[in-house]
Amino acid sequence: MKLALAYYGDPVLRKKGKKITQFDEQLKQLAQAMMVATVEWEGWGLAAHQVGRPLQLFVINLQGLDPEPDMEFSLDGELVPLERVRKLVVVNPILHPVGLEADTEKEGCLSLPDYQRSPVKRPRTIELSYQDETGAPHVLRCNHWLARAIQHEYDHLHGVLYIDYGK
Ligand SMILES: [Zn+2]
Questions:
Q1: Which of 79, 93, 98, 145 has its CA 20 to 30 A from that of 152?
Q2: Rounded to an integer, what distance in angstroms lies between the CA atom of residue 167 and that of residue 153?
Q3: CB under 5 Å of ion ligand 1: residues
Q4: Rounded to two decimals, what is the model's pTM?
Q5: Has residue 117 been placed in a domain?
Q6: For 97-125, what is each residue's pLDDT tens digit?
Q7: Would you say residue 85 lies in a domain?
Q8: Which residues on neighbouring strands pair with residue 139, listed in sequence order?
Q9: Is 153 annotated in the active site?
Q10: Residue 70, domain CATH
Q11: Does residue 2 sit within a domain?
Q12: In angstroms, what is the span from residue 110 Cα to ligand 1's centroid?
């Protein structure tokens, strides 16, 4: 499956993603192709919107990221190393901030190559309820770069872009 990147100005980027109800081979192939695309396009994540499909689906691939001491990941109630959550397929996610701490870091987006990276303030720790590509439910609690990457992609599923925060 060859995917084409949707760029800023494409109306698909402003749509609300449709909930996924069929956990079939087609979904697995799309998720797999999106994961391959994160490598080819050198992104930490990719939302289905960015490949022209407004669905409640994104992938995360924190390629090249080294673990830092204050990073913490808990998957389904169990503390896990970065390697367990470095690559994620996330379907039908619901996101909640945890605590009041926030971080401000510069972000960019594959769909907005002509825009400068710019600072976005986001909650430092989040909890994400979602399904994987088989439909199995998970709860992920995380902070730091993973929390930021997830919040950026989660925004895509609701038609929100990082440049909206500067307005
Ligand atoms: Zn993006």
A1: 79
A2: 19
A3: 109
A4: 0.97
A5: yes
A6: 999 999 999 999 999 999 999 999 999 99
A7: yes
A8: 129
A9: yes
A10: 3.90.45.10
A11: no
A12: 6
